[in-house]
């Protein structure tokens, strides 16, 4: 059974750095075509894709947020980490990690974590 | 990069079909076969309904079908049921520097 679970702070201050961890089970982060994305969803709005890490450790970022994002994984711990710098109240929302089985053309996320709510406020 | 365009809302009576459109460009929906659709109930994570334009995961009801023509993809829910009331999002691979685009979402109301 494939599961993903996000963890991290519930509340951060403006200008803080956010670190979120996605712990996965039921598949290997080094398995063929196995990748994980971070996706966020502001309250009442559509999901926004943030970053993806492929099985071969190649990374891809949202163009609009690239300067603030870092994604990496620890395969031995089955964890994918997202770091987002210079947090702003506009970054408030639910952050999901999701699995995509794709070598190149990522689109379909077949499993999501339940999400973690992050509020940015002083 | 702009989100994919979806109607804000659609509605239908139980048993009727509804169709949701998702319009992009030749850099995403029109140029690739990686279009997906998701259903999201309030407070829940999105659930994959359709991948690669029209393929359904085995656990998804065949009441959900999808297609693509040019730069517009479509999701049809046939035989609308009360539990289908939810938000629906399309997504697509894009060959721009952003890997994945989502649509703005469509709220489906069962009358």
What is the end-to-end distance of chain A?
40 Å
- Structural shape of chain A: globular
Largest sheet of chain A: 7 strands, mixed
User: How many DSSP-defined strands of chain A?
Assistant: 11
Beta-strand content of chain A: over 45%
> Percent helix among the residues of chain B?
under 10%
- Gyration radius from CA atoms of chain B, angstroms: 13 Å
Structural class of chain B: mainly beta
Evaluate the radius of gyration of chain A. 14 Å
- Flag low-confidence runs of chain B: none
What does this structure look like?
The complex is a heterodimer of chains A (122) and B (111). Chain A has strands spanning 3-7, 11-12, 18-25, 34-41, 48-53, 59-61, 69-74, 79-84, 93-101, 109-112, 116-120. Chain A has 122 residues and is mostly beta strands. In chain A, the strands form two sheets. In chain A, strands 2, 4, 5, 6, 9, 10 and 11 form a seven-stranded mixed beta sheet that branches. A four-stranded antiparallel beta sheet of chain A has the order 1-3-8-7, with no helix packed on it. In chain A, strand 5 (48-53) and strand 6 form a beta hairpin. Chain A is globular and about 40 Å long. Chain B is built from no helices and nine strands. Chain B is globular. Chain B is mostly beta strands and 111 residues long. Chain B has strands at 9-12, 18-23, 35-40, 47-50, 64-69, 72-77, 86-93, 100-102, 106-110. In chain B, a hairpin with a 6-residue loop joins strand 7 and strand 8 (100-102). Classes of the chains: A mainly beta (122), B mainly beta (111). Chains A and B meet through strand 5 and strand 10 of A and strand 3, strand 7 and strand 8 of B.
List keywords for this structure.
heterodimer, A: 122 residues, mainly beta, 7-stranded mixed sheet, 11 strands, B: mainly beta, 6-stranded mixed sheet, 9 strands
């Amino acid at each position: 059974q494939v599961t993903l679970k996000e963890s991290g702070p519930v509340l951060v201050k403006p200008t803080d750095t956010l670190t979120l961890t996605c712990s996965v089970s039921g598949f290997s982060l080094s398995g063929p075509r196995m990748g994980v994305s971070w996706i966020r969803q502001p309250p009442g709005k559509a999901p926004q894709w943030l970053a993806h890490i492929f099985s071969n450790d190649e990374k891809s970022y949202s163009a609009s947020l690239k300067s603030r994002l870092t994604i990496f994984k620890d395969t031995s711990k089955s964890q994918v980490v997202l770091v987002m710098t210079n947090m702003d109240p506009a970054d408030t929302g639910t952050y999901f990690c999701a699995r995509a089985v794709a070598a190149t053309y990522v689109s379909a996320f077949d499993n999501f974590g339940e999400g973690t709510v992050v509020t940015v406020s002083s | 990069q702009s989100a994919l365009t979806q109607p804000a809302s659609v509605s239908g009576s139980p048993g009727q079909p509804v169709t949701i459109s998702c319009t992009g460009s030749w850099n995403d929906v029109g140029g690739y076969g990686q279009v997906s659709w998701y259903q999201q109930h309030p407070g829940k994570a999105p659930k994959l309904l359709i991948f690669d334009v029209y393929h359904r995961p085995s656990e998804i009801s065949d009441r959900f079908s999808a297609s693509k023509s040019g730069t517009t993809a479509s999701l049809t829910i046939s035989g609308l049921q009360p539990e289908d009331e939810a938000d629906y999002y399309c997504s697509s691979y894009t060959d721009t520097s952003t890997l994945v685009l989502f649509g703005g979402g469509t709220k489906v109301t069962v009358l």
